[in-house]
Write a structure and sequence with these properties.
Layout lengths: L1 H20 L5 H27 L4 H17 L14 H20 L2 E2 L5 E2 L2 H4 L1 H13 L7 E2 L2 E5 L5 H11 L4 H28 L2 H12 L5 H12 L2 H6 L18 H4 L5 H22 L4 H21 L1 H21 L1 H26 L9 E2 L12 H25 L4 H14 L2 E2 L8 H23 L3 H27 L3 E3 L1 H13 L5 E3 L7 H4 L4 E2 L4 H6 L11 H10 L2 H6 L4 E4 L17 E9 L2 E8 L2
Parallel strand pairs: 8-9, 8-10
Antiparallel strand pairs: 1-2, 2-7, 3-4, 5-6, 10-12, 11-12
Helix pairs in contact: 1-2, 1-3, 2-3, 2-7, 2-8, 4-8, 4-9, 6-7, 7-8, 8-9, 8-13, 9-19, 10-20, 13-14, 13-15, 14-15, 14-16, 15-16, 15-18, 17-19, 18-19
Length: about 625
């Protein structure tokens, strides 16, 4: 645990020094920037050292801490204590939303139950097993050079930095759940204060920033109307409100896909949390350089930091890198057309640093991207492809709801905000013409960026309205209730909806595997998304959940494996086929039952090394000895 504390302190103190170097003065903003920059640097550094060493171990973390002391010493004159904390409306709103994130993580995410099983909200039920497989393979297994835990033959091109940070926490002494939640909480803090800092800078108003963060992180949609209809027909309004039977933020059958980003993105998609927080600080630096007259040395300093932040997004959240790059290019386009030489000269430091550091990462990330991964698509979802412009407008109105209406009013009433918003508006159009991943919904990772700008505009209008009279304050209150209604119901559903993701017996079997099999062992398993071997034991599997493989663009045939090979192996008990597919062990449990496994005890070449019976559930592990 001392190692973990040293890592946390070194990362944070470096971040504080960098925040002051960047000219950030307010305490909450400094703390947020310290987390975003300090932990990004320390994680990348530890990854590089571990990659060279071939293992994430305590010695790698020690070397990383030692190297972090160098820039800390160089920047020591900046100081390591945060500046004064301001408790304006913006920071109070940010603290309130951070408290919500804190409570959701502590009470719901991967929550241990009294009988030893682990339950988690439905919003994390599919995504978290994939993240856990990456975390445990780095912490408990042997995963250098990084390959997919759920497909051992493919390089790990998924942006895994946030998960690697949690793996560092485990090696430093935390348990799996604690390591996940600590990372979530650190970057939740960074996220909320990064956003209010950006909103405050753009709007020039703390009140506008407060309303903006409410619109963004408690985003509602037309689901509140459906909820009201169901509530009045239920006959038990109190129970309906306190214990919703479903999420009214995500209703695909009603074309409501822009769900609560607090739960479905910033808790469920861990890379999105880290990446969006860093992107927000990048935007703050970028727009300051774009719109302010800075001293030459100050401009170079901010340019360098902006370039570093932008480049880091490739391995953290590539969609954030892409969105930020598009916004930046479109923002400087007018000056580029008018004064090309001067514009290129001004932005060359940022472009140079970002290009130099991002290209190697892009070459790694793009290794699994093939035909069909990115392509033209009219509208966001597949269901939009035959929609008229009027139908598409209605679709988006239902999904972004009140925030969109407020933004339109703000653009109409306050034309001075049109210039900075224009690139975000263009991004909206681009994201309605291009699908950026095989699953159409995943383009929400791009949509988040223009929606963030929409919420700032909405906050600006609400702040103006709020200051007019007592009656206008009442109107703003009603607007906020309508804007956040479905999100509030979603939070109540979220904390009450926790299906079991791992049984207590699975945790025991995973512990045996960690203690009794080599760290680089590869297991033949079924394709369950929450399989204990890859998720909890930290071991690679030949082929895991097909849904995760598809969203990552992995074509297994490219690596000599077909989906039917797994079923063929289990049915026939062909040891030579298992070896050909790369397996060292075979796992047999209720999750492999649908594969109709042969009696491996009766077949030569299979040595049973584990057998455990837990009630009606039996687990067997065989070592391939052919």
């Amino acid at each position: 645990m001392i190692l973990l504390l040293a890592f946390l302190m070194a990362s944070f103190f470096l971040g504080i020094a960098i925040a002051k170097f960047a000219g950030i003065k307010e305490g909450f903003a400094q703390g947020a920037f310290a987390i975003a920059s300090g932990f990004a640097i320390s994680t990348f550094l530890t990854l590089a050292i571990s990659w060279l060493a071939g293992d994430l171990a305590w010695i790698s973390i020690c070397i990383s801490i030692s190297l972090l002391l160098i820039p800390i010493f160089i920047l020591k004159k900046q100081g390591f204590l945060p500046g004064p904390f301001e408790f304006g409306a913006d920071n109070i709103a940010a603290l309130a939303i951070f408290l919500i994130l804190f409570l959701l993580n502590i009470t719901s995410v991967l929550a241990y139950q009294q009988d030893g099983r682990i339950a988690t909200p439905e919003a994390t039920y599919v995504d978290y097993p994939f993240h856990l497989s990456i975390i445990t393979n780095f912490a408990y297994g042997d995963n250098f050079p990084p390959t997919y835990p759920i497909f051992a033959r493919s390089p790990l091109t998924y942006p895994f930095i946030m998960d690697f940070l949690s793996a560092i926490f485990i090696v430093g002494g935390l348990g799996l759940r604690e390591a996940v939640i600590l990372g979530n909480l650190l970057f939740s803090f960074a996220l909320v204060f990064a956003f209010v800092a950006l909103a405050r800078k753009i709007s020039g108003s703390k009140t506008a920033a407060a309303f903006a963060i409410i619109l963004l992180l408690l985003n509602g949609n037309f689901g509140i109307i459906y909820a009201l209809q169901d509530a009045f027909s239920s006959g038990d309004l109190g129970k309906f409100i306190t214990v919703p039977a479903k999420s009214y933020a995500h209703m695909p059958q009603m074309e409501l896909h822009f769900m609560s980003i607090l739960t479905f993105i910033f808790i469920a998609e861990r890379g999105g949390l880290m990446g969006f927080a860093i992107a927000l600080f990048y935007y703050s630096l970028f727009f300051e350089i774009l719109n302010s007259k800075l001293r030459a040395d100050e401009e170079r300093r901010k340019m360098a930091l902006a370039g570093l932040l932008l480049a880091s997004l490739v391995m953290i959240y590539p969609h954030a890198f892409l969105a930020a790059a598009i916004i930046s290019a479109l923002s400087v386009l007018p000056s580029l057309l008018n004064e090309p030489k001067k514009t290129i000269g001004k932005w060359l430091p940022l472009i140079g640093i970002a290009t130099l550091l991002s290209v190697p990462q892009l070459l790694w990330v793009f290794r699994n991207i093939g035909a069909g991964f990115v392509g033209f698509q009219y509208g966001w979802m597949d269901s939009n492809k035959d929609a008229s412009l009027a139908d598409l407008a209605s679709f988006w109105l239902k999904n972004i709801w009140v925030a969109g209406i407020l933004a339109i009013i703000a653009l109409w009433k306050y034309p001075e905000h049109r210039k900075w918003f224009a690139p975000f508006g263009a991004l909206f159009i681009i994201a309605n013409l291009i699908k950026f991943q095989p699953q159409d919904w995943d383009t929400i990772k791009i949509h988040l960026h223009w929606f963030m700008a929409i919420c700032i505009l909405g906050g600006i209008y609400l702040a103006k309205l709020w200051g007019k009279s007592r009656a206008s304050k009442a109107i703003v209150t009603v607007i906020l209730i309508a804007a956040t209604g479905s999100a509030a119901l979603n939070l109540l559903w979220y904390v009450n909806d926790k299906p079991t993701i791992y049984e207590a017996r699975e945790i025991q079997v995973a512990s045996w595997i960690r203690d009794n099999t080599p760290e680089d062992a590869v297991f033949m398993t079924g394709g369950a998304h929450n399989h204990l071997v890859s998720n909890l034991a930290g071991r690679h599997v030949v082929m895991g959940f097909g849904g995760h493989l598809w969203t990552q663009g992995i074509r297994t045939e490219k690596y000599g494996i077909k989906g039917e090979d797994i079923g063929k192996f289990y049915r026939n008990g062909d040891c030579n086929l298992g070896r050909k597919l790369g397996a060292d062990y075979v796992f047999v449990s209720e999750k492999e039952r649908e594969l109709k496994p042969a009696d491996f005890d009766a077949i030569d070449g299979f040595e049973r090394v584990y057998s455990g019976k837990f009630g009606n559930s039996e687990y067997k592990i065989y070592r391939l000895a052919c």
